[in-house]
């Protein structure tokens, strides 16, 4: 029988619920259990794919093409398991599915209501994840904080699951905040008591509390919390602020959270294998030297918009024991007339242009690519980054001066980046990009082959536009190498310039597959080239 762990949050948002859920999953996995993770987001978008990154941060993409909350990136990076469509459930998905069923006549004769129709739909999504993943334990994080209007149907569904499956199959971990008041020098438990009571008002009793706290709590405080919250003292876990995020699972392990959960489930507590994780912490704590990477994007004021790219760069730094300093450069600022790019990129060892949508800041990105190409600065382009690298090459090397993407100029005479034929008839914007895993065949003898050491790879995609193959020949005549192609649709996946120190770009998003314990080959070689470009 599949077991279910639910992670809720109270008091304030931003407590690190996602990291707590991931840490629990990591610890259970380290004890030999097959785990799967899921996130409930109570908003009405069907998925975050149509949201502005300013609203929501990065859109993470799973291998099967689901556009998801960025927390799923944390999950995959921590537990190193591929998640899928059942991993991100929004109110939008639930309600639209219920309304579609109603129209199909699946509830003929009934009044369709919040309980049981919406709640059954939510419960089905939980059980479906259990069945389709074949996992022993599903860890589900509930977005938002307890008491939010939007999350009520989710909480009601979880109450029903707790009632139906019993304590031996469900575990509720509630994350809260214990603030320190400077005046009295005390830690305050009242907000936690209140939020546990809010949870109980919804019929859910917490099995463990994970308390974000500035320093370790003492026995007296835990006794008080236990009494007021009806949670055993042993099940109250401190989540002390850390410098190294990878320390968190170990801190929880030291307090026995995984054993507490397994004991409640009546499952054997096999020995935990955390050696590789401790080695990672060692590495991160002992980095020597730095490398400076310029990241040229348009959401530089919001680093969450490029979260997986940051992570992937950082992971690649671990391989060479280097701290990666990411310097955020606003692409629009490069468009000013008299800007001196030498000044802007002074001290930068490598330049990265990440993915993006829309025309704002495009000319600035093109200037950044030109700077990297002409000055032999290591360059990595991702998705839009590859497309602008192609536009730059077309304009400045192939002398096709008005080359552009039809995304930015629908009437351009030289659409070197254009919509695929099957994209031209699409009307709905949501979920219709080219999404998820597609194969890429790599040409031997290229930089891409040197990186991957294999001729066939699978990488995750999220884009609508493609390199226009009508221009392939003229690009090749001018020195561009198309080192990776999709074999089915003959689409360009990787480009590179062999007469450059390190110039490579991909149509897919390699950052989604990078893990702290094994960095991605494209990021590794980019960081290596940047380190040697001192
Ligand atoms: N806007 C481009 C496209 O849709 C690139 C997308 C991206 O960078 N993710 O093709």
Tell me the name of the CATH homologous superfamily of the largest domain. P-loop containing nucleotide triphosphate hydrolases
- What distance lies between the first and last C-alpha atoms, to the nearest angstrom? 56 Å
Report the helical percentage.
25-40%
How do the strands line up in the largest sheet?
13-12-14-15-23-22-21-18-19
- Structural category: alpha/beta
Number of helices: 18
Total separate domains: 2
For the secondary structure, the number of strands is: 23
Radius of gyration: 25 Å
State the name of the first-level CATH class of the largest domain: Alpha Beta
Q: What is the residue-mean pLDDT, rounded to a whole number?
A: 95
| Main beta sheet | 9 strands, mixed
List bound small molecules. glutamine
| Cα shape | globular
Tell me the strand percentage band: 15-25%
CATH topology of the largest domain: the name is Rossmann fold
Overall CATH architecture of the largest domain: 3-Layer(aba) Sandwich
List the main descriptive attributes of the protein structure presented here.
single chain; 534 residues; alpha/beta; Rossmann fold; 2 domains; nine-stranded mixed β-sheet; seven-stranded parallel β-sheet; 18 helices; 23 strands; 36% helix; 22% strand; globular; binds glutamine
């Amino acid at each position: 029988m599949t077991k279910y762990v639910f992670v809720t949050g109270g008091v304030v948002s931003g407590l690190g619920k996602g990291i707590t859920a991931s840490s629990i999953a990591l610890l259970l996995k380290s004890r030999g259990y097959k785990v799967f993770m899921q996130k409930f987001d109570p908003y009405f978008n069907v998925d975050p794919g149509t949201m502005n990154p300013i609203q929501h941060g990065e859109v993470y993409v799973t291998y099967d093409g689901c556009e998801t909350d960025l927390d799923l990136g944390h999950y995959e990076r921590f537990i190193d398991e591929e998640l899928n469509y059942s991993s991100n459930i929004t109110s939008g998905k639930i309600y639209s599915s219920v309304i579609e069923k109603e129209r199909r006549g699946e509830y003929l004769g009934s009044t369709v209501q919040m309980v049981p129709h919406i709640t059954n739909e939510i419960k089905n999504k939980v059980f479906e994840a259990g069945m389709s993943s074949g996992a022993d334990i599903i860890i589900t994080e509930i977005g938002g904080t307890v008491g939010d209007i939007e999350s009520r149907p989710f909480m009601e569904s979880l109450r029903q699951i707790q009632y139906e499956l019993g304590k031996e199959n469900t575990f509720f971990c509630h994350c809260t905040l214990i603030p320190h008041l400077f005046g009295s020098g005390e830690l305050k438990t009242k907000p936690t008591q209140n939020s546990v009571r809010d949870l109980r008002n919804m019929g859910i009793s917490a099995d463990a509390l994970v308390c974000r706290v500035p320093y370790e709590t003492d026995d007296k405080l835990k006794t008080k919390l236990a009494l007021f919250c009806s949670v055993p003292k042993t099940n109250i876990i401190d989540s002390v602020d850390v410098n190294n995020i990878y320390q968190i699972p170990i801190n929880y392990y030291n307090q026995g959270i995984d054993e507490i959960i397994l004991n409640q489930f009546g499952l054997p507590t096999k020995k935990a294998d955390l050696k590789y994780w401790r080695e990672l912490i060692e590495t991160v704590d002992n980095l020597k030297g730095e490398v400076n990477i310029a990241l040229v994007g348009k959401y530089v004021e919001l680093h969450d918009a490029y979260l997986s790219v940051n992570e992937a760069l950082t992971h690649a730094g671990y391989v060479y024991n280097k701290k990666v300093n990411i310097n955020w450069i606003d692409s629009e600022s490069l468009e000013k007339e008299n800007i001196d790019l030498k000044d802007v990129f002074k001290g930068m060892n490598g330049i990265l242009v990440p993915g993006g949508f829309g025309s704002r800041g495009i000319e600035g990105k093109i200037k950044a690519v030109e700077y990297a190409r002409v000055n032999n600065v290591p360059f990595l382009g991702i998705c839009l980054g590859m497309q602008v690298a192609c536009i730059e090459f077309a304009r400045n090397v192939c002398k096709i001066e008005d080359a552009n993407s039809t995304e930015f100029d629908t009437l351009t005479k030289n659409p070197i980046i254009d919509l695929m034929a099957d994209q031209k008839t699409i009307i709905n914007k949501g979920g219709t990009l080219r999404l998820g895993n597609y194969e890429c065949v790599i040409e031997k003898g290229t930089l891409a082959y040197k990186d991957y050491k294999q001729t066939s790879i699978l990488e995750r995609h999220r884009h609508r536009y493609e390199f226009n193959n009508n221009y392939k020949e003229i690009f090749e005549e001018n020195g561009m190498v198309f080192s990776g192609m999709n074999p089915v649709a003959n689409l360009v996946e990787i480009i590179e310039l062999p007469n450059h120190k390190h110039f490579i770009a991909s149509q897919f998003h390699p950052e989604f597959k990078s893990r702290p314990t094994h960095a991605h080959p494209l990021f590794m070689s980019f960081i290596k080239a940047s380190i040697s470009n001192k």
